[in-house]
Amino acid sequence: KDKGKKKKKDKDKDRDHRSNLNDQCGSRGFIRVGEKFQKQDEFRCWLSEHKSIDYGMLGMKERDELWSEFVEDFNTATLPHDKYYNLQEWEQKLARKKSQKLAKLHKKAKSSK
User: Fold this and answer.
1) CA-CA distance, 39 to 29, in Å (whole number)?
2) What pTM was estimated for this model as a whole?
3) Cβ(39)–Cβ(90) under 8 Å?
4) What is residue 106's predicted lDDT score, i.e. its pLDDT?
5) What ranges in the chain are assigned the alpha helix state H?
6) Are 48 and 42 contacting, i.e. CB atoms less than 8 angstroms apart?
């Protein structure tokens, strides 16, 4: 009986894991292996920051293998940081936050005079 219960628990865990991955898939959009140019900046940033790899030092085969890994992580929404999905949007968001913070500091300094 215990073996049957263990197998059922394992099946339930596998189904739950697949379900969670299915929920994530495509939540940030989809890219295909052949669409290298659309996400080139994000790919290079991911290589540099997450993998500590210089894009210029890679051979074509290594680039293609790493690109495939990036695409898989992108499509399953498992990249380690939001910026790797849309670098330009992330940079704009960061700039807005900095601007708002500076405006608050400026306003606070002005009101204390």
Assistant:
1) 12
2) 0.69
3) no
4) 85
5) 2-24, 40-49, 60-75, 87-111
6) no
| Per-residue model confidence (pLDDT) at position 97 | 94
What is d(CA 50, CA 81) in angstroms, rounded to the nearest whole number?
9
Q: Which among 42, 38, 49, 47 has a CA at the least distance from the CA of 65?
A: 47
CA–CA separation, 92 vs 52, rounded Å? 24
d(CA 26, CA 94): 24
Cα(83)–Cα(79) distance, integer angstroms: 9
| Burial of residue 5 (number of CB atoms within 10 Å: 0-12, 13-18, 19+) | exposed
Q: Which amino acid is at 28?
A: R
Among 53, 51, 55, 52, which Cα is nearest to 36's?
A: 55
User: Which pLDDT score is estimated for 29?
Assistant: 85
Contact 47, 66 (CB under 8 A): yes
**Segments in the chain below pLDDT 70:** 1-24, 113
- The pLDDT of residue 43 is 97
